């Protein structure tokens, strides 16, 4: 899928935009995901950054679905060597499960360059060595997708 390209030069550290969309429960995201054909892309972004997997959870997990109500950032593709970084930003409320996802330039980016970020969140606990594995164990709960970024440091798989 063609990615998002910047319209002007960006400086390292510069704010680009946020990932926006409809906030839905993970159950609704699963339902919507099952309705997609193989040719359709999902634009789901899990709001699970601060989930404490070891604690009893009383809240539901949320997902930002950028498919119908999203910003251009939904077209930023993955790269194992990205030029953008994404950070969680929270303001005006005290719910750590709802936050903004903000994109920033990791380096100077020339006008016309495709914007990319790493879909793999290294805080999620899967070691990078496992991310390079040719075989992924089904019981880990990850759906491996072949990575086609072409980076010298490509991990060969995306976990979506």
Automatic annotation (TrEMBL):
Q: In which compartments does the protein localize? A: Chromosome
Residues in domain SET?
1-120
SUPFAM superfamilies referenced in this protein's UniProt entry, alphabetically: SET domain
A Pfam match is SET
Example GO molecular function: methyltransferase activity
UniProt keyword terms in alphabetical order? Chromosome, Metal-binding, Methyltransferase, S-adenosyl-L-methionine, Transferase, Zinc
What GO cellular component entries does it have? chromosome
State the Gene Ontology BP annotations. methylation
Spell out where the chain crosses the membrane: none
Query: What name does UniProt use for this protein?
Result: SET domain-containing protein
């Amino acid at each position: 899928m063609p990615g998002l390209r910047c319209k002007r030069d960006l400086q390292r550290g510069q704010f680009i935009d946020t990932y926006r969309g409809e906030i839905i429960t993970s159950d609704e995201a699963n339902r919507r995901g099952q309705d997609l054909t193989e040719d359709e892309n999902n634009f789901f972004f899990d709001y699970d950054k601060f989930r404490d997997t070891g604690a009893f959870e009383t809240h539901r997990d949320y997902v930002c679905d950028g498919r119908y109500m999203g910003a251009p950032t939904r077209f930023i593709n993955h790269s194992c060597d990205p030029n953008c970084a994404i950070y969680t930003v929270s303001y005006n409320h005290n719910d750590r499960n709802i936050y903004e996802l903000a994109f920033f330039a990791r380096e100077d980016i020339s006008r016309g360059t495709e914007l990319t970020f790493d879909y793999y969140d290294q805080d999620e606990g899967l070691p990078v060595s496992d991310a390079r594995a040719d075989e992924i164990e089904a019981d880990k709960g990850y759906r491996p997708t072949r990575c086609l970024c072409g980076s010298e440091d490509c991990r060969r798989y995306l976990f979506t």
